[in-house]
Design goal:
outer membrane lipoprotein receptor (LolB), chain A, 2 domains
């Protein structure tokens, strides 16, 4: 029997799946280790998040309703967060509900999407470097008020040989630094830097021992996986083949669908993806929908992707900014919690010193 793919593995991690898949995981050392790691990850997610909606513990996305694209609700809310809160919002968007699981179909678009989801997690060794354009709208854009148009150029590096080691940096279109975050689980250190109303801040914290939470690159990847899985489950994909600069590309779109109801946590109304036919990697990705009934949109356009990159020693460090305010302390598994708590603590100390 072939080893389990991510879809069947996720089903087992959620306490579902087929009996023969569970028997294979019990007899195969590699699949057994992957299942234990995935189960531990999902347990960590469930215990670390506190979604602001009241859902029953047994709630799951179902292919007959919650995974369909839905009409965008009119209810709108404005949330005000710091720049570093984007990571927390994407965690909630992604993990309030588990990844969608659908059975294979004979529809070619569905097969392409399934291969693309598998390809997203195919890199497991070496350093992976990505550059891409990211455009945020609605809830995510409001969380980063210093970047009015919501357009970012992102550079990120992931060390797959050291789980949890990464650096993420965002810039304006003309190259001005906006934010950066880096984690080193071996050195037990996290550094987050950003600008707010022209002032630069740097939070340098120690990391606690024990299980780690998902990193920002992992959050982004799984958000994309979940969105593509929803496209696969919709059963109404539009597929066309187009010529790209490096060969054939698959353009798959799921058009807007009307529905009498709305999921209270996360709904998609439109989704589109451009996939390289050579290796099924995602070249472009765009979704629109709602998060907690507030509109949001996200688009991704790949600029560069290198696997097995060779980087200088300081590539995983956040460079200092002129005039930055530095805050240090003991961190937790949640970066946004650290920023809020340590900032308030520093403010209180400064007030007492006056």
């Amino acid at each position: 029997m072939n080893c389990l793919n991510d879809e069947r593995l996720q089903a087992l991690a959620d306490g579902e799946g087929r009996d023969d898949d569970r028997a294979h995981a019990a007899s195969c050392a590699a699949c057994g280790a992957r299942l234990r790691a995935r189960t531990a990850l999902m347990t960590s997610i469930e215990t670390s998040l506190n979604p602001p909606v009241d859902l029953p513990a047994s709630f799951r996305l179902k292919a007959d309703g919650a995974t369909r694209l839905r009409a965008l609700p009119d209810t709108r809310r404005r949330w005000i967060y710091t720049a570093a809160a984007v990571a927390a919002s994407l965690v909630a968007v992604l993990f309030v509900l588990p990844i969608v699981r659908t059975s294979d179909t004979t529809v070619s678009a569905s097969e392409i999407l399934a291969k693309s989801v598998t390809q997203l997690s195919a890199v497991r060794r070496g350093i992976e470097v990505m550059e891409y354009e990211l455009v945020l709208g609605g809830v995510p854009k409001e969380m980063v008020p210093d970047q009015v148009d919501g357009t970012y150029r992102v550079w990120q590096a992931i060390d797959h040989d050291v789980p949890g080691r990464f650096r993420f940096a965002s810039f304006t279109a003309d190259g001005q630094a906006i934010s950066s975050i880096a984690e080193d689980p071996i050195g037990k250190r996290r550094v987050a830097a950003f600008r707010s109303e022209g002032q630069a801040y740097r939070f340098d914290v120690t990391l606690p021992s024990g299980p780690r939470n998902l990193s920002l690159p992992e959050i982004e990847q799984l958000h994309m996986e979940a969105s593509i899985a929803i496209m696969q489950a919709s059963g109404n994909q539009l597929l066309e083949t187009i010529d790209g600069p490096n060969g054939k590309l698959y353009r798959i779109e799921v058009p807007r669908l009307a529905s009498p109801g709305s999921n209270p946590v996360w709904d998609l109304t439109e989704a589109r993806v451009l996939i390289d036919s050579r290796d099924y990697s995602v070249v472009e990705f765009a979704v629109q929908g709602s998060f907690l009934k507030s509109p949001y949109s996200l688009s991704y356009k790949q600029i560069r992707h290198v696997v097995g990159a060779s980087l200088p020693a300081d590539a995983f460090t956040v460079p200092p900014q002129p005039g930055e305010i530095v805050v240090t302390g003991e961190g937790t598994a949640v970066p946004t919690h650290d920023i809020v708590v340590l900032a308030l603590r520093a403010l209180a100390q400064a007030k007492r010193a006056q």
